[in-house]
Amino acid sequence: MWRLRSRGCWADAAALLAKAHGPAAALERTALLVERCLYTGRGWAEAEDGLRQAEALAGTDEERGAAACERGHLAYASTVLGVRDRADEARSALGRAAALLTPAAPGRALLDYRRGLISEHISDSPQAARAAYRRAHAGATAREDALLLSSTWRHLAGLALREGELAEARHGFAQSLRLREELGFLVGTAPALASLAQTEPEPEASRLLAEARRLFGLLGGVPTWLADQLAPAPEPL
Questions:
Q1: pLDDT in tens, 92-127
Q2: Measured between alpha carbons, how far is residue 97 from residues 62, 77, 109, 112, 144 in Å?
Q3: Angle of helix 87-100 relative to helix 108-121, nearest 10 degrees?
Q4: Cis peptide leading into 191, omega within 30 of 0?
Q5: Phi/psi zone of residue 8: left (φ > 0), alpha (ψ -120 to 50 degrees), beta?
């Protein structure tokens, strides 16, 4: 399952869960399909179908909260990718998840991270985003969730870069890249390389971007939102 997901084969990974029963399998399948939407901009109808099934099967507050978290993430992806503005739905769903998930719930750190995404990329509130990312970072550290940590490092570093804190940004991006390489999260490595390149001098910046382009091409142009950043440099006249 992880091998497929890490290489961007979300549909294949989700197919392995299609015949499994129960809310846990439905939620895991939904998470895969929503992640595919975010990385590829495709598969929205299938993700919605999977999400409705997960919501129907959820029987506890924790399961309902996890399903609401996925709905919020799907609405966020639709909004930031310009497919359809679902910002209000994203905020509402994540607010519902926050009411259902206790502070000690396994999914709380992921929820905090996703609320940070909303604050940063939809509400344009970096202070609120930083607070949410830090809560998520602490929760991921406590649970030894290396994949989530790679994301919190990257987004905290992005906020630092936005404020001109170059050394802090470089450290955070380097930590994110290290974790993703250790995990073998191939589909998330190109974004980590491209982010770190923003903080490095030449020739290291060009080397990192070249490696990001190589992985981007290897994965068939995924994630799609990196396309503009990784466009080949124009030939000199």
A1: 999 999 999 999 999 999 999 999 999 999 999 999
A2: 9, 17, 12, 10, 22
A3: 150
A4: no
A5: left
Question: Closest by alpha carbon to 122, among 148, 150, 94?
Answer: 94
Contact by Cβ (8 Å): 144, 152 = no
Cα–Cα–Cα angle for 51, 29, 63, rounded to 5 degrees: 60
Which tens digits make up the pLDDT trace of 153-211? 999 999 999 999 999 999 999 999 999 999 999 999 999 999 999 999 999 999 999 99
Q: Is the pTM of this model over 0.90?
A: yes
* Tokens (6 digits) for 215: 């992985």
The torsion of the CA quartet 171, 175, 178, 179, rounded to 10 degrees, works out to -170
- Distance CA(86)–CA(89), nearest Å, equals 5
Angle between helices 61-80 and 87-100 (to 10 degrees): 160
